[in-house]
Amino acid sequence: MDLELSEEHEALRATVEDFARKEVAPVIGDLYEREEFPYDIVAQMGAMGLFGLPVSEEYGGMGGDYFALCLALEELARVDSSVAITLEAGVSLGAMPIYRFGTEEQKREWLPQMAAGEKLGAFGLTEPGGGSDAGATRTTARLDGDEWVINGSKAFITNSGTDITSVVTVTAITGTGEGGRKEISAIMVPAGTPGFRVAKPYSKVGWCSSDTRELFFDDVRVPAANLVGERGRGYAQFLSILDEGRVAIAALSVGLAQGCVDESVRYAHEREAFGQRIGAYQAIQFKIADMEMRAHTARLAYYAAAAKMLQGKPFKKEAAIAKLVSSNAAMDNARDATQVFGGYGFMNEYPVGRFYRDAKILEIGEGTSEVQRMLIARQLGL
Question: Which of the residues 75, 214, 244, 366 is marked catalytic?
């Protein structure tokens, strides 16, 4: 078992690390405080090919693998999570459902611009009354001739209202299946479709430079051909997308956890208290050592999940473990880094202040920590 990165993966990791330090770090603090979407950074990431990493070249992508995307997310999140989640959601939730389940026509129409970072896609699953209970979907879609007519709403949808958002794929009840169960399908709704309304951005605790909104559908009509994958398989399709996405979120979480270590080590070398630098005190040394331990073990967890995924083996349990361990590590490290920085850690101008605000959502988004435990238990036969 070789945990060393290949030359290609290491070159990508180093390139994204350099980009994050030189291009993202100097500007993201101001963007975050003003709650502005990082359009220039997104354009640069698009030019680098990051949005097309796991997409094949025939659809405008880089022809890489999903692990490459995870490495990019980790390095971005070491500096800022708003930028990282914009990439993660744009690929994992925006492009991948079309890439995995779309028709050839859908792929050729939508993927090239998404892979280039020129347009963003979003996925609408969560609703105001159904987060973890995605089966509680109330949004409906009925066929009227050769069109779907969609009514309902979605909540907490990332990348859904930017100036470059091109399409939102939404889950909706399209009928009743066996045993009276809801038939849930996935349907693409292009931005600007009449009746499709995007609310103002949420006022959030963290991810303040990420676009997150509520969506409303009032007799929205789209072609029947906008169905993604099989009718009635929308929920099942999205569950498989979530398995991949959990590995990506785990990588992002590891990045935040490692960023906390980076900042704390630097500060421990600079800050003086009681006549010497605080890094000389065992209390600080042990706290940072624990932080490094969490980041290291969490990285191993997502590497293991990614390895099984790339080998085509079942990885649901490993993805849940990786997401659970990594999000815990991010939250714990953010808290400890803030303690290392003391009063300065409570200031938004310092990265650890942003890290602390950004960490909590990692225990909630793309499956809460409780959901991850449920998935792990089920895979153990409980």
Answer: 366
CB 197 within 8 A of CB 215: yes
- Residue 2 included in any domain: no
Q: In degrees rounded to 5, what are phi and psi of residue 38?
A: -85, 70
pTM of the model: 0.95
Closest by CA to 152, choosing from 188, 175, 134, 128, is 128
Among residues 203, 111, 191, 131, the alpha carbon closest in space to that of 159 is found at 191
> Is 17 part of the annotated catalytic residue set?
no
* Separation in Å, CA 95 to CA 31, 82, 101: 25, 18, 10
Same domain? 96 vs 135:
no
Indicate if 313 and 359 belong to the same structural domain. Answer: yes
Q: How many domains does one find in the chain?
A: 3
374 and 249 share one domain = yes
* Domain interval for residue 12: 7-119
Each residue's pLDDT expressed in tens, for the chain with a length of 382 residues: 678 999 999 999 999 999 999 999 999 999 999 999 999 999 999 999 999 999 999 999 999 999 999 999 999 999 999 999 999 999 999 999 999 999 999 999 999 999 999 999 999 999 998 776 766 889 999 999 999 999 999 999 999 999 999 999 999 999 987 777 889 999 999 999 999 999 999 999 999 999 999 999 999 999 999 999 999 998 889 888 989 999 999 999 999 999 999 999 999 999 999 999 999 999 999 999 999 999 999 999 999 999 999 999 999 999 999 999 999 999 999 999 999 999 999 998 899 999 999 999 999 998 999 999 999 999 999 9
Phi/psi of residue 220, each to 5°?
Answer: -75, 125
